[in-house]
Amino acid sequence: MRIIVVEDEPNTREGLIGIIKRYTEHEIIYTAVNGKDGLENIRALKPDLVITDIKMPVMDGLTMLQTLHDEGEEFQSLLLTGYSEFEYARKALKLSVTEYILKPLDVEDFLKLLKKVDNKIEKTKIERVSPSQLLWSYLTGTEDEKQKILPVIEESIQVNKKVQISLFLVKGSSVVRESTTEMMEETNSVLDSMCMENYFVVFLSQDVGFLVIILDTERNRSLKRMFQMRVLERIGKISECFCSYTTAYGVTGLDERLLHLKDLMRHAFSFPSGTILDDELLEGFEYENIEYPDSLERAVCREMRSGKTERIQELGEQFKREVIESKGHPDCIREFTVRFTAGLLRVVNELKENLEKENGIQYIVGNMAKSNSREQLEHQFDKVMKTLTLSEGDISGLTENGMILNVISFIRENYARDITLTETAVMCGVTPEYLSKIFYREMNINFVAFLQNFRISMAKRMLSLGKCKIGEVSEAVGFHDQKYFVKVFKKICGVTPSDYKKEMNSQ
């Protein structure tokens, strides 16, 4: 809580401050010695709680509270009063005073009142939040937060353990946040047109997608089919999308069902866009055992070494049929494709062909393992196979008119300064939205994440030398906020820059 204390007696004022600082984590944002001073600063600072005495010079506590109440200021209040002022203090109840406490203060009673007020503030804050926001907080919060939120959600959306809930997790292939927003808006529009009531669309994250929650669907057996035909078909025009489905009873355990939805989504690789993945679909579904085609790899490598590229595309198509288009496990398909492509890359390196070709393939190989869909993996593989047949210096077929290689070069040359997607798009002569889509399609990583990873890789190189301070490294690689640099470095590398530097220098 953010607290303002209004008290003219120094001993009482300092005693209050001491108790709050010693026994709580609440923040005292201002102390005033009279009601007039308190009035001005409560208006300006918007505290959660005002602790005030009644009798004070210039302006008493009740007049101050009455004035703020009439102005519509919202905060909780705790009134300090003596036995002789008790009856007078009752007026405070009409001013929406939360509690009052008698002087001299009893520490234990005072702390109990603070706890009571804090709980009331938290409950009020939660009640003002929309149901969708509450559901998001429940799905992403800690266990303590969930316990606080749960009864408010149940009351807000009028749901109990007997109410069936349908859950659809939807994820688009686009990394552009605007595309996801458009998909969510379209989902709302379609459900409204179906006269669907008691539903909520909750954005989770760009990586996870958004969750559609529909209440009391027990009697609607055709809901899943309707969702596929009406919603997925419509939003599929915005972006290739994947969907998983399950049901639950009541809000309790929604977070566990979300984990199940995420697990179902892993199988999206094996199905076409717009498929609804659920337990019924996957019941009895088995992946085939596939063998790594060593002979194909040797054949392509042989063609590359001989300089005869006529059959490279043909052999690549054979690999696609045997591996990428197979019914093998997605992890196995991705692993084999990376292995196959890495083998070809070794031959490119061995033959010392043009450096741009080698670098381009390296970037694609490095991201193949992260492919979300069969189409995405196949697209990357096709780019690699096409590149193998390109002549010296002709690399335009690797990416969209060589655009992505130009972007990578731009990042290499300018990573130390503030560069943005918009600036880079202008350099390429395209819109930021278009560049974002193309970059992710080619690299399987969004522009910002790639830039951050590149900067951190340069930072690691500098730290390993052990000659620069953390602040100097931060500035040198384009992070002008050292705290943010440390946060990003730890997220990517798992350790702080300082720990990484120590580890490198101890070797």
Descriptive report:
With 507 residues, the chain is an alpha/beta fold. The protein folds into 4 domains: 2-127, Response regulator (Rossmann fold, 3-Layer(aba) Sandwich); 131-281, Alpha-Beta Plaits (2-Layer Sandwich); 286-398, no CATH class; 448-505, Homeodomain-like (Arc Repressor Mutant, subunit A), CATH 1.10.10.60. Helix content is 57%, strand content 12%. The protein has helices spanning 10-23, 35-45, 61-70, 86-89, 107-128, 131-140, 143-156, 177-193, 223-235, 254-265, 279-282, 294-306, 312-324, 330-351, 355-368, 374-388, 403-414, 421-428, 432-443, 447-465, 470-476, 482-493, 497-505; strands at 2-6, 27-32, 49-53, 76-81, 99-102, 164-172, 199-205, 209-215, 241-249, 276-277. The chain has a 5-stranded parallel beta sheet, sandwiched between helices. A 5-stranded mixed beta sheet has the order 7-8-6-9-10, sandwiched between helices. The longest helix has 22 residues, at 107-128. The protein starts with a strand and ends with a helix.
